[in-house]
Amino acid sequence: MTTKPMADQYRDIETRRDVDRQADFTVGNCARCGDDHEGLSVVTFFRPIEDHEDGFEWIWWAECPTTGDPILICEKPKEAD
Fold this sequence. Notes:
It is built from 1 helix and 4 strands. By secondary structure, it is an alpha+beta fold. The protein has a domain at 24-75.
């Protein structure tokens, strides 16, 4: 088994985050500060967080511009037909 030096692993992660970074997301009623934020740059999780009870999948995160804390962003669950 071949492993990369730790520095190379982090470099790959940062490269992927730069590629996955998306701008212009709007978050209303931020969970960290309560304000609305426009034009946020979000990052895609490598392993999304699933909430099996409510059906949410937390796919992205962004930094709250007010507090610097992470904001989790999800897609709304699909409604049952």
